[in-house]
C-alpha cells in the first residue's frame, strides 16, 4: 500500500464520528473527519436538543460497562471543552411489572449493583404527580444516576476538542465511496491507513456489504408547553409503556416546553430514504402524541409547540453494528434509537480498532456481519 496521508479518516461526524475523531486525536493520531453537512446539523440522528442517558439498561446488562465508561468520557469532554453536556435528572421506567422496560432495567440494575428503587403507582403519584393514568399494577423503576445529554452541543464539542488536539475537519463534503484505505470525494481522493465509517442512516450507501440488515426509519419528537413542575430539577426523564406503545419524555430545558416522543409502537417504522430524509411531521404525529399526553401527563398542553423528524437506524435485534467491515475499514452503524449515550465510548472502541486492530471491549453483541 502506498504511503497514506492520514492514519485514520472518519466519515460522518454525527454522534459516533465526532467522538471517534476526538478519541483518535487524543491518542495523537493524524486524523481527518469528513462530514457532508455541518457538525451539529439536524438532518441525521443526533439533533433535537436532548437525549436520555440511562444506566439500568433494559436492552441488556452487557450495555452497562459501555455506559459506565461513556459516563467518564462525557465528564472528560465537559472538562476539556467547558461545555455542560450532561444534566442530571434521574430516570423513571414505568410499565407493567413483567415488561422488558421495567423487568429488564431491574435485572441490569441488580446484576451491576446500580442504585435504583421500585415504586408503586401511589408512591409515584406522591413523588412525581406529573405522571397520571397508570393502571394499579404498574411499576416505576427510578434510577438516580440518569439524566439528559445535549446532542448538538456534544457533537460540536467533540469536534472542537478533536481540532484542538490536531484533527482536521472537512465539512460540507460528501464522500462518494470508501474502500481499501481510500475515501473518494467528488473531486479527489483521500488516503488513510484506516477508515471509520459512521454514516448513520446513510451507512448502506458506503457499507453496502454490511451483514446486518439496516432499516432507516422515521421518528418524530414533539415539544409541549409545560408548567414549572416539568423543569429538570423536578421532572426526571422517563420511558413509559402504555398498551403496545413505548414512549418517553424529557424535562423542559428551556423552562417552557417538555419533549415527548414515541420510541416503539405498531406501524411506527415508516422507512426513510436517506437521500431525501424523513417526511416532515404532520397532524397524525401530533394526534399520536396528544393521545399519550392527555391521560398520561395532564399538566402538559397536548398541542405541540413544535415537532421535528429524526431517523433511527434499526438493526433487527436493535443491537449496534460495531467492528471490522473490511480490510482498513471499521463500521459504526445501526444505533437503533439508543446509541447516543454511548458515543464517546464507541469512539474510544473505534480508535482501538483503527489504530491496533483490536479492542478490550466485548463486542460479541455487535458483530457487523451477523445476520439478523
Ligand atoms: C428522535 C431520536 C431520539 C433518540 N433518543 C435517544 C436517547 O434518548 N438516548 C440515546 O442514547 N439515543 C437516542 N437516540 C439514538 C441516537 O441519537 C443515535 O443512535 C445516534 O445519534 C446515532 O449517531 P450516528 O453518528 O450513528 O448517526 P448520525 O448522527 O446521523 O451521523 C451520521 C453522520 O454521517 C454523515 N454522513 C452520512 N453519509 C455521509 C457521506 N457520504 N459523506 C459525508 N458525511 C456523511 C451525516 O451527515 C451525519 O452527520 C435517538 C435518536 C433519535 C432519532
In short:
The protein is an alpha+beta fold. Helices cover 26% and strands 28% of the residues. Strands 1, 2, 9, 10, 11, 12, 18 and 19 form an eight-stranded mixed sheet that branches.
How would you describe the overall organization of this protein?
With 372 residues, this protein is an alpha+beta fold. It contains eight helices and 19 strands. The protein has helices at 15-26, 63-81, 100-112, 121-127, 151-164, 203-206, 283-296, 343-356; strands at residues 6-11, 31-34, 51-53, 86-88, 91-95, 117-119, 139-143, 147-149, 168-170, 175-179, 182-185, 189-197, 215-225, 237-242, 245-250, 257-264, 304-314, 321-326, 329-333. Strands 1, 2, 9, 10, 11, 12, 18 and 19 form an eight-stranded mixed beta sheet that branches. An eight-stranded mixed beta sheet has the order 6-7-5-14-15-16-13-17, with helices on both faces. Helix 1 packs across helix 8, helix 2 crosses helix 5 and helix 2 (63-81) crosses helix 8. It is globular. The mean pLDDT is 97. Bound molecules: flavin-adenine dinucleotide (FAD). The site of flavin-adenine dinucleotide has 37 residues, from helix 1, strand 3, strand 13 and strand 17.
Amino acid at each position: 500500500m502506498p504511503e497514506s496521508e492520514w492514519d485514520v479518516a472518519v466519515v460522518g461526524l454525527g454522534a459516533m464520528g465526532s467522538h471517534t475523531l476526538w478519541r483518535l486525536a487524543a491518542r495523537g493520531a493524524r486524523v481527518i473527519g469528513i462530514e457532508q453537512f455541518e457538525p451539529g446539523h439536524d438532518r441525521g440522528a443526533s439533533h433535537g436538543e436532548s437525549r436520555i442517558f440511562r444506566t439500568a439498561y433494559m436492552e441488556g446488562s452487557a450495555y452497562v460497562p459501555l455506559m459506565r465508561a461513556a459516563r467518564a468520557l462525557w465528564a472528560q469532554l465537559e472538562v476539556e471543552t467547558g461545555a455542560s453536556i450532561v444534566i442530571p435528572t434521574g430516570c423513571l421506567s414505568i410499565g407493567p411489572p413483567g415488561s422488558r422496560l421495567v423487568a429488564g432495567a431491574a435485572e441490569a440494575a441488580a446484576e451491576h449493583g446500580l442504585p435504583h428503587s421500585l415504586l408503586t403507582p401511589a408512591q409515584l403519584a406522591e413523588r412525581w404527580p406529573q405522571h397520571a393514568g397508570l393502571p394499579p399494577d404498574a411499576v416505576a423503576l427510578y434510577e438516580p444516576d440518569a439524566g439528559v445529554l445535549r446532542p448538538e452541543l456534544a457533537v460540536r464539542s467533540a469536534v472542537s476538542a478533536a481540532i484542538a488536539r490536531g484533527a482536521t475537519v472537512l465539512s460540507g463534503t460528501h464522500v462518494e465511496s470508501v474502500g481499501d484505505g481510500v475515501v473518494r470525494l467528488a473531486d479527489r481522493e483521500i488516503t488513510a491507513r484506516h477508515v471509520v465509517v459512521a454514516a448513520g442512516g446513510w451507512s448502506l450507501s458506503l457499507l453496502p456489504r454490511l451483514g446486518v440488515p439496516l432499516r432507516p426509519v422515521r421518528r418524530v419528537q414533539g415539544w409541549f408547553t409545560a408548567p414549572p413542575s416539568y423543569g429538570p430539577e423536578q421532572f426526571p426523564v422517563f420511558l413509559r409503556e402504555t398498551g403496545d406503545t413505548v414512549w418517553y419524555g424529557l424535562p423542559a430545558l428551556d423552562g417552557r416546553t417538555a419533549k415527548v416522543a414515541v420510541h416503539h409502537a405498531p406501524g411506527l417504522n415508516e422507512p426513510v430514504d436517506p437521500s431525501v430524509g424523513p417526511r416532515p411531521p404532520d397532524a397524525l404525529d401530533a394526534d399520536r402524541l396528544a393521545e399519550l399526553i392527555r391521560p398520561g401527563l395532564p399538566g402538559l398542553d397536548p398541542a405541540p409547540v413544535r415537532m421535528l423528524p429524526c431517523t433511527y437506524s434499526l438493526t433487527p435485534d436493535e443491537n449496534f453494528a460495531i467492528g471490522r467491515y473490511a480490510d482498513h475499514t471499521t463500521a459504526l452503524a445501526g444505533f437503533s434509537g439508543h446509541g447516543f449515550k454511548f458515543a464517546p465510548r464507541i469512539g474510544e472502541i473505534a480508535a482501538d480498532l483503527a489504530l491496533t486492530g483490536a479492542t478490550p471491549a466485548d463486542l460479541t453483541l455487535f458483530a457487523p456481519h451477523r445476520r439478523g
